[in-house]
Amino acid sequence: MKYFTSLLCILILSACSSETAVDKHKEKTGKELFQKNCVICHGSDGKLGFNGAKDLSKSVLTQEERIIQITNGKNLMSPFKGILTEKEIRAVAKFTESLKTSN
After folding, report:
1. Which residues of 84-100 are buried (b: 16+ CB within 10 A; e: fewer)?
2. Residue-wise over 39-65: b if at least 16 C-beta within 10 A, else e?
3. Is 85:27 a contact under the CB 8 Å cutoff?
4. Which structural domains are found in the chain, ordered by start?
5. Which 3 state secondary structure label does DSSP give 77?
6. 27-58 per-position pLDDT tens digit
7. The whole model's pTM is what?
């Protein structure tokens, strides 16, 4: 019985570990990453402007400029290099394009 209980615990832990590993490797979308890392200052629509954050709905930055700024930060904006992968930074930069409003 002791052997069976130990084996059962190992199987349950293995199943839980693999689900966790899959979740960790699930790629997040640019929108999900933006909501997790950027909304606090930029707001969900990009217009909040907290702590000096720029209004992303009026941004004229190119995609490459956005990537550089997200990677290295600027003024009070923290750099996300080392926090997000290059692929994730590109996804966030691409998502911010969708926040632009036409004038």
Report:
1. beeebbbbbbebbeebe
2. eebbbeebebeeeebbebbebebeeee
3. no
4. 27-97 (1.10.760.10)
5. strand
6. 899 999 999 999 999 999 999 999 999 999 99
7. 0.75
CB proximity list for 86: less than 8 A, separation 6 or greater: 71
Q: Which of 84, 101, 3, 92 is nearest to 39 (CA)?
A: 92
Structure tokens at 44: 């969900």
Tell me the sheet residues that pair with 84: 81
Rounded-to-integer distance, Cα 45 and Cα 57, Å: 7
Alpha carbons 56 and 33: distance in angstroms, whole number: 15
* Chain segment 12-24, per-residue pLDDT in tens: 444 444 444 445 5
